[in-house]
Automatic annotation (TrEMBL):
Protein name, entry field: Sporulation initiation inhibitor protein Soj
Family, as annotated: Belongs to the ParA family.
Top-rank lineage group of the source organism: Bacteria
Species of origin: Desulfotomaculum nigrificans (strain DSM 14880 / VKM B-2319 / CO-1-SRB)
InterPro entries referenced in this protein's UniProt entry, alphabetically: AAA_dom (IPR025669), DNA_Partitioning_ATPase (IPR050678), P-loop_NTPase (IPR027417)
Subunit structure: Dimerizes in the presence of ATP but not ADP; ATP-binding is required for double-stranded (ds)DNA-binding. Interacts with DnaA.
Location of the AAA domain: 3-178
Coiled coil: none
Catalytic reactions on record: ATP + H2O = ADP + phosphate + H(+)
Length: 253
């Protein structure tokens, strides 16, 4: 049975998408069948694995709103063992439309059930909010991975995120676990980066992943080539860090 990991933090720009794409691709290149599920209307995870969103006539919106079977929306990427349910701007309207739907927080969970046997990992890239789309991801997931950027106000909003997790555990998904807290864009030359690491470890203790993702220019270049960095430049520091994270997630450090 596959494991569903939601990548969430309502703050934008903390490396949710970068982590979804590169953790997903690292796991898939290690031989694990992976499905990425893009539920951000920006569709950055989709373009990040080479999907041309203008070419799509269906996306995750159709799975959530029109009950299209997910099998009909899945695309095999060029990367071995890596499939995706893409998102387009059409998804921007979904939250409003879902409000009146029955069991509106459980729509994604129900849609993913038939896929759990096909994939070892299903990784959901969430939008930068705690709205209905993110709630659907948290209801569907076995665990939550929280990226935190080593920057000013790193922990801003984290309290609100923890409250949301508790509410989800109470009402929607009692088994939801925290997969881990991932420190991203670490710059060893900056005192601030080092302070953030200390602060986050104080709050989350052993929940913090041992592997910290360094700031690495290759990571920011890769999306414009429609490739995960682990494919675009496998030898870069960013690639190395995400492969190590994948091993940590698999429990083979
Ligand atoms: P989110 O999905 O949380 O909004 P992204 O993954 O899109 O965040 O990352 C925000 C920006 O930071 C992107 O331009 C991305 O390429 C860049 N980025 C992410 N991680 C790193 C890193 N470790 N080093 C350098 N740039 C990064
Ligand atoms: Mg994103």
């Amino acid at each position: 049975m596959g494991k569903i990991i939601a990548i969430a933090n309502q703050k934008g720009g903390v490396a949710k998408t970068t982590t979804a794409v590169n953790l997903g691709a690292s796991l898939s290149l290690m031989g694990q069948p992976v499905l990425l599920v893009d539920i951000d209307p920006q569709g950055n995870a989709s373009s990040g694995v080479g999907i041309d969103k203008n070419d799509l006539d269906r996306c995750v919106y159709d799975v959530l709103i029109n009950e299209v079977p997910p099998e009909e929306v899945i695309i095999n990427t060029e990367i071995r063992n890596l499939d995706i349910i893409p998102a387009t701007m059409q998804l921007a309207g979904a939250e409003v439309e879902m409000v009146s739907m029955l069991a509106r927080e459980q729509i994604l969970k129900r849609a993913l059930v038939p896929l759990k046997d096909r994939y070892q990992y299903i990784i959901i890239d969430c939008p930068p909010s705690l709205g209905l789309l993110t709630l659907n991801a948290l209801a569907a997931a076995n665990s939550l991975l929280i990226p935190i950027q080593c920057e000013f106000y790193a922990l801003e909003g984290v309290g609100q995120l923890m409250n949301t997790i508790q509410l989800v555990q109470k009402h929607l998904n009692p088994d939801l676990k925290i997969e881990g807290v991932l420190l991203t864009m670490f710059d060893a030359r900056l005192n601030l980066s080092i302070q953030v690491v200390d602060e986050v470890k104080k709050v989350f203790g052993t929940k913090v992943f041992k592997n910290i993702i360094p700031r690495n220019v290759r990571l920011s270049e890769a999306p414009s080539h429609g490739l995960p960095v682990v494919v675009y430049d496998p030898k870069s520091k960013g690639s190395e860090a995400y492969r190590e994270l994948a091993k940590e997630v698999m429990g083979i450090e």
